[in-house]
Fold this sequence. Notes:
The complex is a heterodimer. By secondary structure, chain A is an all-beta fold. Helix content of chain A is 0%, strand content 51%.
Amino acid sequence: EAQVTQNPRYLITVTGKKLTVTCSQNMNHEYMSWYRQDPGLGLRQIYYSMNVEVTDKGDVPEGYKVSRKEKRNFPLILESPSPNQTSLYFCASSYRGQPQHFGDGTRLSIL
Amino acid sequence: SQQGEEDPQALSIQEGENATMNCSYKTSINNLQWYRQNSGRGLVHLILIRSNEREKHSGRLRVTLDTSKKSSSLLITASRAADTASYFCATDAVGGGTYKYIFGTGTRLKVLA
């Protein structure tokens, strides 16, 4: 089954404790992306990757890191999380210019 | 921010009625996509319209695109209670080596049985 898998689905953590949200897709898509969704703001793109070892900033990259060492994986790293990064996060993948497939989301709370 | 905008923010209709949502955007695009989201779940793609297309249909969905006005509309005909969800438009901002996606703020649709 074609899917985008994010882990964990839920996480409560504390300020400053490094965390990684994993994302994996099984569709051989070149394009992968991370979004955050906040009430009233829709989805905002954090980082995206057009292929292995090629990443670029979206609209809200501050406080986040990504890497793309393999085509299927695109982890999102919060080196020193802060409360303003409490949000619902989505990973997505696609062929370039094609509809994106979304994961089920990761609800992150930073205290 | 280059956030797109959708209106209305919320829409409540009776089952069987048509629902129309509008999306405006700011940059030149290659395509515009509409997505649906149920209660904080992942988004599901509905329809994609390319910048050289003016109208597209898929089942009960009709999408129009006016690139001169930088706007699009999504029409859901003969709505059902199961259409209750949030709907988002997304545009690709391509140029200068970038390939970003910009989502609208969404329309919350409630279809009353």
